[in-house]
């Protein structure tokens, strides 16, 4: 079975010299629907496909993707790493990345609009201010003016994170859409079917992946490259560029983080505060922490970051990789291979347990990020697959039970320091694994399973509700 490829609809339309508006008129539908087909947010009905084929002078086959090879059709398991490493504005995938994506799609669908209004409901209305949802919306829709309304009273909504987007031209409403931010940065337009991204990795345990890699003499990143589409490296290149930019911007930034807690940005000070008699070890810790603070502070400021695997834990992996690139001059290509290796570990945790603080506590965010960073570093150090597994296992094992209790619901305290500590811990985990790998008793698969069970047992008040722990004691 093949699937409809959004890009093919777009390229056939352009080849015919048709704008989205013209094609929409020919089909008797809204140009918004065309835009959604081309972006992959919904797909044409069978009748529309037949009509498209007639308009384009094409065959039905021309709309289908040939990336669905037999191997991928049969796959039952993990999704692409593109679904794990998402690029967008922090500090929250559901409260900032989802709304940011919704704004981009809506803007593209309605180029006529010269002004916008966005109404936030449910959780977006209740905690959107603290997360900076309104600021992200305004930045994304800029330079057009936008009014953001928080309506926490409306209860008749289809999802806890619902928003209405309204486009205006010269003060008159021309477009309206209801959008749900459904988690992990994904969005869904009301009354439109969503195309689920395919599962392209048949294996979904580390032991299966390791067995395959050993049989075919592959490193983990080579295994991923076999499973992913050919544009993986181009995407990972973008991921690494954004990660580096987050580090560099964060090191330049000063002042107070938004949200009202008066938390000072510290990355720049950490980076520049060298002691006269600083040891090499202390310097390493300071540098790694400065890089983790830099990215985490960019996230808390609502700037662009990469989920690794989440917004709250976005600083761990870039901190470790950026430090290693500076210190040991690894090429970008080597860093990309390390990133992909980290992605496999993150994907395993996402598939078999969780990467959500709301679901399993901070062990699922910072613990997962630490395991990913350990795997990445193991790849950079050319460790074999058993040692990489051990390093990841150590990294996550010692985060088991870590609760999520962010003060005031802001991704600042304890989140930012936690990124720095986890980055240092990832480095230690790799050192330990290099020496002790043949004495280990616990597999990565087992510790992931344990993390899931532990997450279930953690009280709900310690899972991103800000009702317990530090959030309760401090305020
Ligand atoms: S404490 Fe909660 S919000 Fe902060 S990094 Fe951990 S999981 Fe994310």
Mass-distribution shape = globular
- Determine the fraction of residues in helical runs and give it as a percent range: 40-55%
Show unreliable segments.
67-75
Q: What is the mean pLDDT?
A: 89
Radius of gyration: 23 Å
Bound molecule kinds, no repeats: iron/sulfur cluster
What are the main properties of this structure?
475 residues, alpha+beta, 60s Ribosomal Protein L30, Chain: A, 434 Repressor (Amino-terminal Domain), binds iron/sulfur cluster, 3 domains
Structure description:
- Helix 17 packs antiparallel against helix 18.
- The chain folds into three domains: 61 residues, Orthogonal Bundle (434 Repressor (Amino-terminal Domain)); 91 residues, 60s Ribosomal Protein L30, Chain: A, CATH 3.30.1330.90; 276 residues, no CATH class.
- It is of the alpha+beta class and 475 residues long.
- The relative contact order is 0.10.
- About 2% of the residues have low confidence.
- The protein binds iron/sulfur cluster (SF4).
- Iron/sulfur cluster binds next to helix 19.
- The site of iron/sulfur cluster (SF4) has 13 residues, from helix 19.
How are the secondary structure elements laid out?
Blueprint: H1 6-15, H2 20-27, H3 31-39, H4 46-56, H5 70-73, E1 78-79, E2 87-89, H6 93-109, E3 115-121, H7 122-131, H8 133-141, E4 146-151, E5 162-169, E6 172-183, E7 186-189, E8 199-201, H9 206-215, H10 220-227, H11 232-252, H12 267-272, H13 280-300, E9 304-306, H14 316-328, H15 332-352, H16 357-360, H17 366-380, H18 385-397, H19 415-436, H20 444-457, H21 470-474
Parallel strand pairs: 3-4
Antiparallel strand pairs: 1-8, 2-9, 3-5, 5-6, 6-7
Helix pairs in contact: 2-3, 3-6, 6-8, 10-15, 11-13, 11-15, 13-14, 13-19, 14-17, 14-19, 15-17, 17-18, 17-19, 18-19, 18-20
Bound molecules: iron/sulfur cluster (SF4).
């Amino acid at each position: 079975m093949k699937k409809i490829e959004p890009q093919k609809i777009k390229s056939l339309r352009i080849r015919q010299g048709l704008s989205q508006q013209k094609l929409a008129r020919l089909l008797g539908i809204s140009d918004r629907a065309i835009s959604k087909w081309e972006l992959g947010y919904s797909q044409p009905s069978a009748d529309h496909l037949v009509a498209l084929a007639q308009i384009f002078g094409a065959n039905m086959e021309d709309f289908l993707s040939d990336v669905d090879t037999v191997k991928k059709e049969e796959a039952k398991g993990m999704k692409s790493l593109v679904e794990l490493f998402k690029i967008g504005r922090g500090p929250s995938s559901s409260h900032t990345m989802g709304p940011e994506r919704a704004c981009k799609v809506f803007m593209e669908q309605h180029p006529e609009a010269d002004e916008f209004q966005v109404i936030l409901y449910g959780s977006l209305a209740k905690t959107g201010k603290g997360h900076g949802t309104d600021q992200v919306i305004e930045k994304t829709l800029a330079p057009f003016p936008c009014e953001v309304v928080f309506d926490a009273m409306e209860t008749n909504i289809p999802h806890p994170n619902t928003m209405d987007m309204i486009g205006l031209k010269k003060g008159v409403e021309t477009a309206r859409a209801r959008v749900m931010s459904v988690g992990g940065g994904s969005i869904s337009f009301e009354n439109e079917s969503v195309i689920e991204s395919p599962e392209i990795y048949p294996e979904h345990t580390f032991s299966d992946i390791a067995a395959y890699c050993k049989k075919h003499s592959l490193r983990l990143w080579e295994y991923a490259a076999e499973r992913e589409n050919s544009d993986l490296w181009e995407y990972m290149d973008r991921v690494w560029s954004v990660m580096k930019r987050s580090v560099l911007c964060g090191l330049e930034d000063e002042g107070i983080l938004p949200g009202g807690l008066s938390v000072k940005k510290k990355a720049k000070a950490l980076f520049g505060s060298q002691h006269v008699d600083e040891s090499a070890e202390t310097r390493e810790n300071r540098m790694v922490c400065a890089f983790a603070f830099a990215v985490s502070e960019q996230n808390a400021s609502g700037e662009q970051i990469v989920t690794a695997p989440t917004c709250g834990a976005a600083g761990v992996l870039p901190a470790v990789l950026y430090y290693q690139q500076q210190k040991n001059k690894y090429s970008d290509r080597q860093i990309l291979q390390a990133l992909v290796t980290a992605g496999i570990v993150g994907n395993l945790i996402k598939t078999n347990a969780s990467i959500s603080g709301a679901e399993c506590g901070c062990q699922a965010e910072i613990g997962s990020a630490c395991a990913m960073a350990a795997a990445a570093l193991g790849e950079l150090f050319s460790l074999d697959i058993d040692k990489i597994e051990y390093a990841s296992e150590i990294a996550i094992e010692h985060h088991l039970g870590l609760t999520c209790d962010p003060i005031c619901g802001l991704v600042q305290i304890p989140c930012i320091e936690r990124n720095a500590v986890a980055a240092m811990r990832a480095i230690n985990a790799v050192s330990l694994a290099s020496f002790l790998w043949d004495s280990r008793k616990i597999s990565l698969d087992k510790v992931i399973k344990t993390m899931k069970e532990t997450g279930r047992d953690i009280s709900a008040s310690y899972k991103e509700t800000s009702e317990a722990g530090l959030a309760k004691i401090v305020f």
